[in-house]
Amino acid sequence: MDIETLKKWNPWWVYGSVPRERSGIVREELIDGLSHLVKAKEIVSITGVRRGGKSTILYQMIDALLSEKIPAKNILYFNFDEPMSENGVHVLDIVYNAFLELNNPQGRQYLFLDEIQNVREWERWVKTQYDLKGEKVKFFVTGSNTSMLSDSLAKLLTGRMLSQEVYPLSFKEYLIFNRVELMDIDLQRDEIKHYLMKYLEEGGFLEAVLDKNSELNRQRLREYFNSILFRDIVATREIKEGAKLGELSQYVATNIAGIFSYNKISKTINLNINTLKEYLYYLQQAYLVFQVNHFSYSLKESLAIQKPKKMYFIDNGMRNSIAARFTQDEGKLAENVVFLELKRRGYEIYFWKGKNEVDFITKDQRSNLQAINVTYGTTTEAREKKGLSEFKENFQKSDTLLITRGEEKTEEGIKYIPLWKWLLQSQDK
Predict the structure, then answer these.
(1) CA–CA distance, 283 with 278 (Å, rounded to integer)
(2) Distance (Å, rounded) from C-alpha 282 to C-alpha 229?
(3) Which domains does the chain have, with CATH numbers?
(4) What b/e sequence results for 232-269 when a residue is b if at least 16 CB atoms lie within 10 Å of its CB, and e otherwise?
(5) pLDDT tens digits, residue range 233-270?
């Protein structure tokens, strides 16, 4: 391993701190949530979409360790997304042994291994080191694919790994990155609503938020999308019909929040159902697309292939950079933002349809149900209320919530709250 390369990735060995351009603006809620995992012995796995902020999170965690007087030479960072001549597991031995030889760290070592899914059989190497060295080595690994949490990996690292998913910026973080200091949200309502309109269009990818050139950002987000599609999926999976995968992605992006069936999509883009399901699985693994199942107390019924599903996209800005947009679709964008926020808050998410529809049914860790509809028109349509009332009649022990553009009240057992205010609520509300 070239010593110069190692030092390039670990400038704190020389300067004692993380360069500002790498650590960026601190995402406090994420860092706070991860900070209590530092002292635990388990491996910490951080997953999320490519360019969604995982590397920055690692740098911020390293900065926090340095501020707590952890010796700089006990901390190793390496990004395996760099072009490598080959990606066998022995690459990890080379990097780690070079770190030990160069620094001779005393005490606990902190290893930050970024985009580690690019190394074949990395999990076996990490497991071996973990089992041999115990709490002497603390591992943080990141990846841009949910296969990091696959069944085989889960079995191999059972009891050894704690996981955290990272998404593009929440609306609360978006305000912080735009230097909006929240003092009194009711008095700042107009300012907050101004930024919400921008957030619905721009999304939360860090570089696109910090750069104010909207045309450049659209191009940047298309490049992010193409990189994920062709580098992480087409090349890795050796897919021959890359154009069809792109067509499917654009279809999903254009039709977010709609109810669909595999048959309908299959006929629309001329792709057989088995290949379609396979491609959707790859898109979901790469954190581009999310499929939501129909709610039922029967797991078998909820997951049934013939049941309709809904789909959402990882980020509004990326979605808007590739989708075919013929009309104003604020309602779809608002619903997509709500879905992503529910994911951040850790809920199980479903939808429900009887005579009327409910956009989201959420289930928390105590199995409490909440039925949520999202309406972003100037007036609340009757069907939104009917769907919530119908669900309440069928499932008595459930709360009902209507997220609106501006209405705020409680009527007929339904709580109404504006989208901007709901997004700024603490997660336990």
Answers:
(1) 9
(2) 9
(3) 3-166 (3.40.50.300), 172-423 (no CATH)
(4) bbbebeebeeeebbbbbbbbbbbbbbeebebeebbeee
(5) 998 888 888 899 999 999 999 999 999 999 999 999 99
* Spacing of C-alpha 141 from chain mean position: 16
From residue 165, alpha-carbon distances to 9, 39, 233, 372 in Å are 24, 19, 20, 23
CB 246 within 8 A of CB 325: no
Express each pLDDT in 70-88 by its tens digit: 999 999 999 998 777 778 8
pLDDT in tens, 124-177: 999 999 999 989 999 999 998 876 655 556 677 778 889 899 999 999 999 999
- Tokens at 219, concatenated: 């191009």
Cα–Cα distance measured from residue 52 to residue 50, given in angstroms and rounded to the nearest whole number: 5
Distance CA 223, CA 338 (A): 25
Report DSSP letters for 177-196, one per residue. HTT---S-TTTTHHHHHHHH
Beta bridge partners of 312: 290
**Residue 118, Cβ density class (10 Å: 0-12 exposed, 13-18 middle, ≥19 buried):** buried
Distance set, CA 343 to CA 35, 136, 187, 339 (Å): 21, 34, 29, 6
Cβ atoms within 10 Å of 203's Cβ, excluding its own? 27
pTM of the model: 0.93
Give the ranges where 75-121 is alpha helix by DSSP (H).
Answer: 90-103
Pair 149, 45: CB distance under 8 Å: yes
